[in-house]
Write a structure and sequence with these properties.
Layout (H helix, E strand, L loop, with lengths): L1 E8 L3 H8 L2 H4 L6 E7 L2 E10 L2 E15 L4 E10 L5 E13 L2 E12 L7 H33 L5 H14 L4 E2 L8 E2 H5 L1 H24 L1
Parallel strand pairs: 3-9
Antiparallel strand pairs: 1-7, 2-3, 2-8, 3-4, 4-5, 5-6, 6-7
Length: 220
């Protein structure tokens, strides 16, 4: 299924590009996601989702398929498998940016393929979930950008000695995969996130089930 989301961030396009291509920086802003390892342009991590009482954890890998700074366009390939073997997910995510006044408009197109319990929701519900998760992501990202800008404005530039030490550390860290120490997030509750559209679709069945349960209890 194809999902399309648009949003705006209040920073210039060059800063938006630098931020959104820095996976380690934006990972904590993604609901339910945890980045665990970086190896060059390849990123490993996991995503936790809940479907009512059932929690699914997808472990997988993502890498940039295309990154064109001149066009402010990037394509990310991601795939993961449920750790219990109950399904898998794959996505090709394309992000395109355009300047919008003093900010940046971003259009994200996701070609998503899912199997297992999550697939039961269908395109309509998944589109609604996607929209709300993007909203949470943007809110968290803008707060982080605001805090980052305030720190930059209130601090003096680093000394050449500090920069040299940082560069030496970066060179040492580029020799192989780097583990990321990121706190494990709360799983995304798809039933809660889907809200009204999901109730509209499955609500009547839930009410019938509840009535049957109550009748059985009265008979006993």
């Amino acid at each position: 299924m194809e999902l399309k989301n648009e949003f705006r961030v209040g920073v210039p396009i060059d800063q938006a590009w630098g931020t959104l291509t820095d996976v380690e920086y934006i990972a904590p802003c993604m609901p339910g996601a945890q980045l665990t390892e970086i190896d060059g342009e390849e990123f490993k991590g996991q995503v936790k989702v809940k479907v009512g009482p059932i929690t699914a954890q997808y472990k997988g890998v993502a890498k940039f398929k295309e990154k064109d700074e001149s066009q402010y366009r990037m394509v990310l390939d991601a795939s993961g498998r449920d750790t219990r073997g109950a399904g898998n997910a794959a996505a090709e995510v394309t992000a395109e940016m355009t300047a919008d006044g003093d900010g940046t408009k971003i259009v994200i197109t996701t070609d998503l393929k899912v199997t297992g319990k999550v697939a039961q929701f269908g395109r309509g519900v998944m589109a609604d979930v996607s929209e709300k998760l993007i909203g949470q992501f943007v809110e968290s990202l803008e707060q982080k950008l605001l805090e980052s800008n305030e720190r930059q404005e209130g601090s003096e530039s680093k000394s050449d000695e500090d920069d040299s030490a940082t560069n030496d550390e970066a060179v040492e860290g580029d020799s192989g995969p780097r583990k990321i120490d990121m706190p494990e997030p709360e799983p995304v509750d798809l039933l809660d996130t889907a809200g009204a559209p999901l109730f509209k679709r499955f609500g009547p069945f839930a009410l019938v089930a509840l009535v049957l349960v109550l009748l059985r209890r009265r008979k006993r």
